[in-house]
Design a protein that fits this description.
The complex is a heterodimer of chains A (about 220) and B (about 1150).
Chain A (H helix, E strand, L loop, with lengths): L2 E10 L6 E11 L4 E5 L6 H8 L7 E6 L9 H11 E4 L11 H6 L10 H14 L15 H13 L5 E5 L7 H18 L2 E5 L3 H5 L3 E6 L2 E4 L2
Parallel strand pairs in A: 3-7, 3-8, 5-6, 6-7
Antiparallel strand pairs in A: 1-2, 1-4, 8-9
Helix pairs in contact in A: 5-6
Chain B lengths: L6 H8 L1 H40 L4 E10 L8 E13 L5 E10 L1 H6 L11 E4 L1 H7 L6 E7 L15 H4 E11 L19 E6 H8 L6 E7 L4 H11 L7 E6 L12 E9 L6 H13 L3 E15 L2 E11 L22 E6 L13 E7 L9 E13 L41 H9 L5 E4 H8 L8 E5 L6 H15 L12 H8 L6 H8 L1 H21 L1 H10 L3 H41 L5 H4 L6 H23 L7 H5 L11 H24 L6 H28 L8 H9 L3 H20 L23 E9 L6 H21 L5 H12 L4 E8 L16 E5 L1 H6 L4 E4 L20 E6 H8 L6 E5 L5 E10 L7 E5 H7 L6 E7 L5 H11 L5 E5 H44 L1 H9 L4 H36 L6 H26 L4 H7 L1
Parallel strand pairs in B: 3-7, 4-6, 12-16, 13-15, 20-25, 22-24
Antiparallel strand pairs in B: 1-8, 2-3, 2-5, 2-8, 4-7, 5-6, 9-10, 10-17, 11-12, 11-14, 11-17, 13-16, 14-15, 18-26, 18-27, 19-20, 19-26, 21-24, 23-24
Classes of the chains: A alpha/beta (about 220), B alpha+beta (about 1150).
């Protein structure tokens, strides 16, 4: 399977007993799969997502993407891996205020010195057209609505044609109508790109729109659909 | 097109508000750094400008105590001059100004100095502005000048005169003109010394007539305006003649002739000197010249014997000659018939019919009584015994009065009774018409006894030599005059000016080299400003870090996109460097103004007020570039240190806006922390209790400082631990506030460090401030027991604790009071002199010290001393010992002064120097060497065998007088006298000495005052350090302000929550105030506590602390802190509750 997670555990040291956040989460996903993970606050959903995205390291267990264990790589190789294979969409979009829409989408591509800048720019424009922001390319994030910012974040997550797209509460800060639109957009683009999509959400509406769902309980993942 | 390298620029532009603080901090750092370098530039530039100005265009110069003919060097742009040291008295009110330099110039010389030569009759002078001001004289005013009387004859020889009235001469002059304050001739000085010169310019001829007596056409200085030293030396070599050496080649006897020696013609040539004794250089030159011509020579010494005695029969006041007894005619022989030679202990007597010793037989003992050759410290007689070898008839070579060189006052007198000798002479021993008088009339100065050369060298040698003439036999068939004609050019060629110490020096180069400064002021001010620079750098780091912390999510983003931590760090550092570069440019420009302020500060604080007159701002491109580059490098490093850990924080935390992950301290870490704390405390106690045992006060101060610093570090570690320690339940608002202080421990500790270290430094450096120690006045204290220093322009020969010395003072006082009487006729002069005579007996000890002029090597001299002053101390001071030593070489025993008499394996001369002088000016330690020059200009190595502490000898090297006399035999008399008297009488004794020895240009200073002036230099440095440290403290408070404002901004939601749950605004304000004042108080308490503990031992040893100043400092710090915190707290309470809660 392109994405294989085996018995993932994560603990944090405290003054007393270690805090166990993940207690052996496992899953397997193929290209084109889309999984929504739900669960109560503090259940470890975001922790799982951060580990899948190599933003954090597990205490034990393995993650493999296309047969590669990213945690076996050194820092520079790991960063390259993340840059080329993984796209992130955060609840707070985290657009950089000093860049315009087009530039925000292109930021992840700058780190590769051998990139084809023209081709990448064309691809960014295409993505922004698909998310409906073709007319706002030179606008700054402060000039966009919440939904528009999240569209930019989606386009940014897809600019490098990643294998795996991770979305952490992608509609958490949006009103209901915008959230629905963004959810649909996300799934549509995922389908078109053939990526593996994993989203963490509190929204039951968003979760229901995903073909696969799982529940995070006491640090373990249980498939519900 | 967007590229990786453009990201930092975009960020800088976007976050410009926050970046302004970073820019400001970088600008401050650059201004301080470049400013310090500019201070160094200013000092060097000012000294250079001062040097150029004080030279008045002179490029090369010779000055010395040899007199040469005025026209010796006639080359363009070179002027002869007569330079004398003396004192000046205002005839109207009696005001006396010592240490005046009188320069006699030709008309050309006046023009070269930019002066108008006086044209009126009488001796007219152009006065420097300072002299006129000190003397209170106006144009047309009458002055009396007292200068040293020149004497070709060594004053320390039996033929020299040594009383004050013989060593000085005075004459009147009129002030024809007074220079404007800004005229360069006011500052004319060939030496790199700090004291502003007091110059008086007089027409050369007038000065020569008054000061040089019978031989007026002489000068002792040459100034070249443009030609280099080499050219002038070459010209001197070509034109210097025998009269410039004081030499003459005599072929005829001088009248009056003896009745029985009527011929004036000599059968030989006699090389003689007006200096009484021929110098070694001259002897070598004469003998080698004669050898080249194939001529025979004979060294001859004519000496005056008080008695030639056999049993009870005595011949008084006769000439004894040390000759080569067996020399062939016309140079000898001086042997009785049948006697082939004369042993070292044998004597031959002249056979004259009326001789009282005619009954003596060969083998009998003949006693010679004579004055010791060196009478500097007083006449002393020696009696030597010889075995009579026989008699020689008074004919031919043994009836030759010319063996004795002419001596005015003796050889030119018809009768012995009319002799006017400088030595003790009992006229009653020779009566007119008696046998001795008859001999004088018949044979004049013909010797009555002869010994060999070895005996002459043994008994008649002094440091000036032992040969009064070299007699040269003409070649066969040649007359003495023909011999002179051949000999003269050879002799001239061999008598190079350099061999006589007549070396024209490249004074401009020397002065400019010295103007580079003894102390690297640029480096010194960098050191003083170090804390300020570090504070600025910390502020840069803090501001940059605070900016970046606000962008934690942005950094998390980059890491999430796959930017490696290294790339992100590079971007951030590059951003920081760009800001640093901008700030550095602004700062370097600001440094120009900052350095001017610093310069004004130094000029104000410097103990020598003359510094203000020449210190001017300078700034070189090199310093500007260096300041820029150093700021860039240090700021870049600071930025890197500030953010390097940030990129290691897990991206999820960064994306949440968290920048610090506080993990609990592991047991091993805690253990090491405890060991470090205990170690610092133990080391601190050792330093604080051990330092009082160190004899060296500077090392003591360093020990106290180190102890305090270690206590500070221990305290800081404890504070860090306490801030993060688990606590019990917070039960009050105060508990709550104190708990909050540990919220961001890194920032809190940095704040405490900034404020605490500034407070510590400002207070603790007080222990370095020096004043004379409590035992200074004692024999083993810094003064050596001598409370007065008597310095004179004209050397004194009589000790001030001797009758002769007191008589000198009383004679001068009599003259002084006489002049005073003209203004104050009611004064009872006799009573005053009688009282003074009584008072002078309170001088317990007076030690004369020989002085060879040179560069002032004390820390008051901003110039680099290249040729330090030399002092020669007599054996009785060496035996007395005393003074305080910082360090000595091994083998000192109980009395370190004996080291000055211990020969060095390599022949170096052992010397002492003051500790600070050795370390900072000469840059040597005990065992190190320094080069000095002898009278001929030859380099001689001296080895430092001891350093003195708090002594008055801070401007010079101290050696045994024997050694100094060998280096400078013609430096006669003593220009420094160390006087011991009881403290109550000291001020009055000082006044009496100054008045009585006015003619010798005497200045009397208390040793305590002299040493305090030197120590004031350290005080200046400390005050500067403290002022700069105060600025650093201010920066620290600014940093605290930034941290507070930032902290409040970060916790808006938290503060809003407190208000939402019912905390009154005043309670919230109090909480914020308490939290930050707690940090401020911790910093000040830590710094002050550590500083006071470090200063306590020094206080116990008699030191002091400016408690008032410390109090003002604390009040200032707290007041500023309270204002800043109060403003921050007020701003926090303005945010609406709900908006603040929602944004959380």
């Amino acid at each position: 399977m392109p994405l294989t997670v085996t018995d993932l555990r994560k603990e944090y040291p405290t003054r007393g007993e270690p805090l166990r956040v993940l207690a052996g989460a496992s899953l397997q996903l193929a290209d084109g799969d889309a999984l929504a993970i739900t669960g109560p606050s503090g259940s470890g959903k975001s922790t799982l997502l951060h580990i899948l995205g190599t933003l954090d390291r597990p205490s034990s267990g393995t993650v493999e993407l296309d047969g590669q264990d990213p945690f076996a790589l050194d820092d520079i190789a790991l960063a390259k891996f993340r840059n080329e294979r993984i796209g992130f969409i955060f609840q707070e979009h985290h657009l950089l205020p000093q860049f315009n829409v087009l530039e925000n989408v292109l930021v992840p591509t700058l780190v590769n010195p051998n990139r084809d800048a023209a081709a990448l720019e064309a691809h960014a424009r295409s993505l922004l057209e698909r998310v409906g922001l073709a007319a706002r390319l030179d606008h700054r994030p402060a000039e966009l609505s919440g939904g528009e910012r999240q569209r930019v974040a989606i386009a940014r997550a897809l600019i490098q044609k990643p294998k795996l797209v991770l979305a952490d509460e992608p509609t958490g800060n949006l009103d209901r109508h915008t959230a629905q639109t963004i959810g649909e957009l996300l799934l549509e683009l995922h389908r078109q790109a053939g990526t593996i999509l994993v989203a963490v959400t509190h929204s039951q509406d968003l979760a229901k729109s995903f073909p696969a769902r799982a529940e995070m309980t006491d640090g373990r993942l249980e498939r519900s659909a | 097109m967007l590229a990786l390298r453009s990201l930092p620029l975009r960020s800088i532009r976007h976050h410009w508000r926050g970046n302004l603080a970073v820019l400001f901090a970088a600008a401050v750092g650059a201004a301080v750094l470049a400013g310090a370098l500019f201070v160094g530039d200013s000092l060097r530039g000012s000294l250079r400008a001062k040097s150029e100005r004080q030279l008045n265009g002179v490029t090369a110069a010779w000055t010395g105590n040899r007199l040469i003919r005025t026209g010796s060097v006639a080359m363009p742009d070179t002027v002869p001059a007569l330079m004398l040291q003396g004192s000046l008295a205002n005839e109207d009110d009696g005001t006396t100004v010592p240490h005046v330099t009188i320069v006699g110039l030709t008309e050309d010389g006046f023009t070269k100095f930019g002066l108008k030569p006086p044209t009126a009759r009488g001796v007219q002078a152009v006065l420097g502005a300072r002299v006129a001001a000190k003397a209170g004289i106006k144009v047309g005013g009458k002055l009396r000048l007292s200068v040293q009387q020149f004497s070709s004859l060594p004053r320390s020889s039996i033929m020299g005169k040594r009383n004050a009235e013989d060593t000085t001469l005075g004459f009147d002059l009129t002030a024809a003109d007074i220079l404007p304050d800004d005229h360069a001739a006011n500052d004319f000085n060939l030496l790199p010394n700090p004291a502003p010169p007091l110059n008086v310019y007089v027409p050369l001829e007038a000065l020569q007539r008054r000061a040089l007596g019978d031989n007026p056409d002489r000068v002792n200085a040459l100034f070249a305006f443009g030609p280099d030293a080499g050219a002038v030396n070459a010209a001197l070599e070509r034109t210097l003649d025998l009269p410039d050496w004081g030499l003459r080649l005599r072929t005829r006897r001088d009248p009056p002739l003896g009745n029985k020696v009527p011929s004036r013609n000599l059968a030989y040539v006699s090389l003689e000197t007006d200096r009484l004794l021929l110098e070694p250089t001259v002897l070598d030159a004469a003998e080698s010249s004669a050898k080249e011509l194939g001529l025979r020579t004979a060294r001859t010494t004519a000496y005056l014997a008080i008695d030639i005695a056999h049993e009870k029969y005595v011949i008084p006041y006769s000439i004894v000659a040390a000759v080569e007894p067996g020399a062939a005619a016309p140079l000898g022989p001086f042997l009785p018939e049948g006697v082939p030679n004369l042993a070292d202990d044998e004597i031959v007597l002249a056979d004259w019919p009326e001789s009282p010793l005619k009954a003596a037989k060969p083998g009998d003992t003949i006693r010679l009584k004579f004055f010791a050759p060196d009478v500097e410290s007083g006449e002393r007689t020696i009696t030597a015994e010889f075995k009579l070898r026989g008699f020689v008839p008074l004919s031919g070579p043994t009836a030759d009065p010319a063996i004795t060189p002419p001596f005015p006052g003796i050889t030119d007198k018809l009768d012995i009774a009319t002799w006017q000798p400088p030595f003790t002479f009992d006229r009653t021993r020779i009566r007119p018409g008696d046998v001795h008088d008859k001999f004088w009339k018949d044979y004049r100065t013909t010797p009555k006894a002869y010994v060999n050369r070895a005996a002459g060298e043994k008994w008649f040698s002094s440091r000036f030599g032992n040969v009064t003439s070299i007699r040269i036999a003409p070649a066969a068939g040649e007359t003495p005059e023909q011999t002179v004609a051949k000999l003269t050019p050879l002799l001239r060629a061999k008598l190079t000016p350099a061999s006589g110490g007549l070396v024209v020096e490249d004074v401009r180069s020397r002065l400019l080299a010295a103007s580079k400064g003894g102390t690297d002021f640029g480096g010194l001010f960098l050191g003083f400003s170090l804390f300020l620079i570090v504070s600025a750098l910390l502020l840069v780091g803090l501001m940059f870090r605070l900016n970046i912390e606000r962008r934690a999510k942005e950094i998390g983003n980059y890491l999430a996109f796959g930017y490696s931590p290294r790339v992100v760090l590079r971007m951030l550092v590059f951003e920081g460097l760009l800001l640093a570069a901008l700030g550095a440019i602004v700062g370097v420009l600001a440094a120009v103004g900052y350095s001017r302020l610093l310069l004004a500060l130094i000029a104000d604080l410097w103990p020598d007020p003359g510094a203000k007159s020449f210190l001017r701002p300078h700034a070189t491109p090199t310093s500007a570039i260096l300041g820029f580059v150093l700021t860039l490098v240090m700021t870049g490093l600071t930025v890197w240190l500030a953010v390097r850990k940030l990129v290691r924080v897990a991206p999820p935390s960064l994306l949440r806006g968290q920048i610090e992950t506080t993990e609990p301290e592991r047991p091993a870490e805690r253990r090491w922390g405890t060991i470090l704390i205990v170690g610092c405390v133990v080391a601190a106690i050792a330093a604080l209790f051990g330092s009082p045992m160190l004899p060296n006060p500077d090392f003591r101060a360093m020990g106290f400082f180190l102890g305090g610093a270690l206590l500070f570090v221990a305290g800081l570690l404890v504070i860090r631990r306490r801030l993060t320690a688990p606590r019990s339940l917070a039960r009050s608002l105060t508990d709550f506030a104190v708990r909050n202080a540990g919220r961001a421990p890194g920032r809190s500790v940095l704040t405490v460090l900034l404020i605490g270290s500034a407070t510590f430094l400002l207070v603790a450096v007080e222990s370095f401030r020096r004043k004379p120690e409590a035992d200074f006045a004692g024999r083993t204290g810094g003064s050596g027991g001598f409370n007065l220093l008597v310095e004179s322009d004209v050397p004194l020969f009589n000790r001030l604790d001797s009758k002769a010395g007191r008589d000198d003072v009383l004679a001068g006082l009599d003259l002084f009071l006489q002049r005073q009487a003209e203004r104050n006729p009611d004064a009872d002069k006799k009573a005053l002199v009688a009282a003074a005579k009584e008072k002078l007996t309170a001088i317990r000890v007076s030690v004369p010290v020989r002085v060879v002029s040179g560069d002032d090597a004390s820390c008051l001299n901003l110039y680099q001393a290249g040729k330090p002053r030399l002092l020669g101390v007599p054996d009785d001071l060496i035996e007395r010992g005393g003074f305080r030593f910082a360090m000595t070489a091994s083998g000192a025993g109980d009395n370190p002064w004996t080291l000055l008499k211990q020969p060095q394996p390599d022949g170096a001369i052992p010397v002492f120097a003051e500790q600070n002088t050795a370390m900072w000016m000469l840059k040597i330690m005990v065992g190190g060497t320094v080069e000095v020059e002898d009278e001929q200009g030859k380099k001689v190595t001296c080895r430092l065998v001891g350093t003195l502490q708090d002594s008055p000898f801070q401007s010079e090297l101290v050696m045994a007088d024997d050694a100094l006399r060998k280096l400078h035999p013609r430096e006669e008399g003593f220009r420094l006298n160390l006087v011991e008297t009881d403290a109550a009488n000291a001020p009055e004794i000082a006044k009496l000495l100054a008045a009585g020895l006015q003619g010798s240009g005497v200045a009397v200073t208390e040793s305590r005052e002299r040493v305090a002036a030197f120590q004031a230099v350290v005080g200046t440095y400390l005050t500067t350090f403290q002022l700069l440290g105060g600025l650093g403290l201010l920066l620290g408070i600014l940093g605290l302000a930034a941290v507070i404002l930032r902290g409040v901004w970060e916790r808006l939601g938290e503060i809003a929550l407190l208000r939402a749950v019912g905390f009154a605004p005043s309670a919230v304000r109090r909480a914020v105030l308490l939290e930050n004042l707690w940090l401020l108080a911790l910093g000040v308490a830590l710094g002050l506590g550590a500083a006071v503990l470090s200063v306590l031992p020094n206080l116990a040893l008699g030191g002091s602390l400016p408690w008032a100043g410390v109090g003002i400092l604390l009040v200032g710090v707290f007041a500023t802190g309270i204002i800043v915190v109060a403003l921050a707290a007020r701003s926090a309470l303005r945010a609406p509750i709900l908006a603040a809660l929602r944004s959380e």
